């Protein structure tokens, strides 16, 4: 691979730290840095509040119409969103643990990942043999 396409180790670490979930600093104004339970809870809260607002507008009711049962439903929906996010986070943790365990048991299958520069494009492509239908003679 050409030296102009190689990236330094420091830059690779910065890129991987930026891309992977949970490796960036948490920020309240950036929901992409939130954990999965909080993403689920905030999504369900937003959907619930929007549904409450739209139903009140559609039925021409004031914002305080049946506010107590609706607030309880919004709280329940937010809790369901938090639980779904926690389940998703647990699923990803289990998946990553299984993959890491398999990689420890079979390191010879993952040796090609140690080369951070990767393969050149000519090594990735398979040879191409044109087979066109207008040629009637078969090999």
What is the topology?
Layout: H1 9-19, H2 36-58, H3 67-105, H4 121-124
Helix pairs in contact: 2-3
Membrane topology: Single-pass membrane protein
Subcellular location: Mitochondrion inner membrane
Transmembrane segments: 36-54, 63-85
What can you tell me about this protein's structure?
- With 139 residues, the protein is mainly alpha-helical.
- It has one domain (3-123).
- Helices cover 55% and strands 0% of the residues.
- It is built from four helices and no strands.
- Helix 2 (36-58) packs antiparallel against helix 3 (67-105).
- The longest helix is centred in the middle third of the chain and has 39 residues, at 67-105.
- The radius of gyration is 26 Å and the shape is elongated.
- The chain starts with 8 loop residues before the first helix and ends in a 15-residue tail after the last helix.
Defining traits:
55% helix; transmembrane; 139 residues; mainly alpha; elongated; respiratory chain; mitochondrion inner membrane; electron transport; 4 helices; NADH dehydrogenase [ubiquinone] 1 subunit C2
Provide the low-confidence segments as ranges.
none
Helix/strand order:
HHHH
Question: Strand share of the residues?
Answer: under 5%
The separation of the N and C termini measures 36 Å
- Alpha-carbon Rg, integer: 26 Å
Q: How many independent structural domains?
A: 1
How many helices in DSSP terms?
4
Number of strands: 0
* Percent of residues in helices: 55-70%
Structural class: mainly alpha
* Average residue pLDDT: 85
- What is the oligomer described by this structure? single chain
> What is the 3D shape?
elongated
Protein name: NADH dehydrogenase [ubiquinone] 1 subunit C2
Keywords: Electron transport, Membrane, Mitochondrion, Mitochondrion inner membrane, Respiratory chain, Transmembrane, Transmembrane helix, Transport
Subcellular location: Mitochondrion inner membrane
Membrane topology: Single-pass membrane protein
């Amino acid at each position: 691979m050409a030296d102009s396409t190689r990236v330094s180790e420091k830059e690779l670490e910065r890129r991987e730290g930026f891309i992977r979930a949970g490796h960036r600093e948490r920020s309240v104004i950036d929901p992409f840095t939130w954990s999965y339970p909080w993403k689920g809870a905030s999504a369900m809260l937003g959907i619930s509040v929007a549904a409450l607002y739209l139903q009140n507008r559609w039925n021409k009711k004031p914002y305080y119409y049946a506010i107590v049962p609706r607030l309880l439903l919004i709280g329940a929906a937010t809790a369901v969103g938090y639980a779904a996010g926690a389940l998703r986070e647990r699923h990803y943790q289990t998946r990553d643990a299984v993959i890491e365990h398999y990689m420890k048991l079979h390191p010879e299958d993952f040796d090609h990942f140690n080369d951070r520069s990767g393969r050149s494009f000519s090594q990735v492509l398979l040879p191409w043999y044109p087979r066109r239908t207008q040629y009637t003679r078969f090999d």
